[in-house]
């Protein structure tokens, strides 16, 4: 049994980056640390805590979006430096010194307020300060709103791919186009 998903991979060069700094209400963006990782359980399942702890241990950088001290969103990135193709986040085939933005969520009642773009802006600035040559993100093909937001801050479509995830074993990935038609 396979789980099949289609993704669009976007890339961003520093010269195309258009930071998003608007806030709609009392929102703050802060780095996820071992000390504040438990704050996620007020809005998200408690099962996220071990996942977030593992991401921190593996060198990922995460941010929380807060509204009135409550965590209402999160987003992660990781810096890679490889002369060979690696599967960023386990499934996105990329190469070079780059940052991959991934694993994001905003609670339903806070969507449409720019939180995704605020968190992405924070992570992009962090990645650029660490001399990432490119920043990538991948978005499921059906998520038009997220794709539109990432294009707003300068991301451009790089390629599309299909990920086949078997119940057991490695993920299989196949590029199926180089640009949107």
Task: Furnish the topology, listing elements before pairings.
Blueprint: E1 2-12, E2 27-31, H1 48-57, E3 61-67, E4 70-88, E5 92-106, H2 115-129, E6 134-140, H3 144-152, E7 156-166, E8 172-177
Parallel strand pairs: 5-6
Antiparallel strand pairs: 1-6, 1-7, 2-3, 3-4, 4-5, 7-8
Summarize the structure.
The protein is of the alpha+beta class and 181 residues long.
Question: Explain this structure to me?
Answer:
The chain has about 180 residues and is of the alpha+beta class. It is built from three helices and eight strands. An eight-stranded mixed β-sheet has the order 2-3-4-5-6-1-7-8, with helices on both faces. A hairpin with a 5-residue loop joins strand 7 (about 155-165) and strand 8 (about 170-175). The longest helix is centred in the last third of the chain and has 15 residues, at about 115-130. The radius of gyration is 16 Å and the shape is globular. The protein starts with a strand and ends with a strand. The relative contact order is 0.25.
Key words describing this protein structure:
181 residues, alpha+beta, eight-stranded mixed sheet, 45% strand
- The pLDDT mean sits at 91
What's the order of the H and E elements?
EEHEEEHEHEE
Report the sheet with the most strands, covering strand number, pairing sense and barrel closure.
8 strands, mixed
Distance between the termini: 30 Å
Helical proportion?
A: 10-25%
- The radius of gyration over CA amounts to 16 Å
Give the count of helical stretches. 3
What's the overall geometry? globular
Order of neighbouring strands in the sheet with most strands: 2-3-4-5-6-1-7-8
Unreliable stretches (pLDDT < 50, length at least 5) are: none
What share of residues are in beta strands? 35-45%
- Which structural class is indicated by helix and strand composition? alpha+beta
Number of strand elements: 8
């Amino acid at each position: 049994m396979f789980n099949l998903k289609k993704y669009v991979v976007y890339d961003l060069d520093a010269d195309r980056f258009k930071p998003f700094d608007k806030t709609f209400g009392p929102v703050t963006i802060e780095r996820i640390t071992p000390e504040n990782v438990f704050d996620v359980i007020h809005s998200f399942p408690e099962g996220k805590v071990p996942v977030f702890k593992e991401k921190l241990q593996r060198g990922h950088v995460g941010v929380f979006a807060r509204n009135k001290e409550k965590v209402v969103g999160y987003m992660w990135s990781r810096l890679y430096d490889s002369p060979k193709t690696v599967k960023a986040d386990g499934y996105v085939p990329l190469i070079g010194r780059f940052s991959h933005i991934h694993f994001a969520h905003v609670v339903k009642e806070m969507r449409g307020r720019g939180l995704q773009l605020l968190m992405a802006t924070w992570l992009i600035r962090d990645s650029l300060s660490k001399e990432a040559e490119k920043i990538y993100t991948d978005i499921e093909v059906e998520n038009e709103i997220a794709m539109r937001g990432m294009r707003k801050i300068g991301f451009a479509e790089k390629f599309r791919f299909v990920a086949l995830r078997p119940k057991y074993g490695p993920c299989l990935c196949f590029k199926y186009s180089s640009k949107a038609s």
